[in-house]
Each structure stands twice: as C-alpha cells, then as structure tokens.
Amino acid sequence: MKPESTNTPYSDLFREIGMKLKFSADRKLADVELNGQQGRMIGYIYENQDRGVIQKDLATQFNRKGASITSMLQGLEKKGYIKRIVPENNERQKNIYVLEKGIALIEEFQDVFAEIEGNITKGLTKNEAEQLKTLLTKVSHNL
Questions:
Q1: Which PROSITE patterns match (predicted)?
Q2: Per residue in 94-138, pLDDT tens?
Q3: Is 69:22 a contact under the CB 8 Å cutoff?
Q4: Is residue 3 part of a domain?
Q5: Residue 6 domain-assigned?
C-alpha cells in the first residue's frame, strides 16, 4: 500500500479505490472489447429502455459530458450492442435500445459486477458493510 498524503488522505484513498475498481472491471470485460463504464451503460439502457432512454439521461446517470457519452454510444452502436432510433413524435432526440447481442452480454456483466461488489466488502462483517454503504452515501451527498 502506498503512503497516503497527510493533506488529502480521504481523496487519495477514494482515487486509489476508484482506479482499482475501474482496472478490475476493465480487465474482466476486455474479452468483449468493452470497458466497465460501457458495461454499466448497456445495463442501464436495458433496465430503462421501456421509458425511452436518451443521451441526456446517460450523461446525468453517469456524470459525464455529452461528447463523452456520444463517443461511448457510437462505439457500442458500431459493435452492434445498441441502436438509436428517432421517435416519430420528437425528431430532435434519439431513444436508445439494447440489441440482442447486447442483451446476451448483460447476464455476463451482472456476474462480473457482482464479483467486483463482493470484493469491495470481502473481509467485512455484514454490519461493517452496511456502515460502509451508509458512510459512502453520506460522503456522496456532501459532494
């Protein structure tokens, strides 16, 4: 473990944990040429496509800029995981849907992310895991 900065120990730990989580997810999803963010995005689209997911929803959900979301969607579309359709009643937006190829990956993603979630709380008691979730929720609301 690296020595933490005396000025920013919490930020340093969050950054280190975030990088480890991203690396772990990306490594597990590399076989299908996706990264963890794209995997979570496909899952979110699938779970919410009945209500009409649009790019703005993804930018809000994943706290990303529009250009970043556009790039990710273009990659997912090019690989045949999603499609974007302009609805008849609103030609200014595109609803996003997961295609069969993407649906086949969702179950695999769920297993990957469940394993990562398990690693986060490995070694913690059930009570400690709940406390961690409560504290992290508070921290998230503070930011």
A1: HTH_MARR_2
A2: 899 999 999 988 877 777 778 888 999 999 999 999 999 999 999
A3: no
A4: no
A5: no
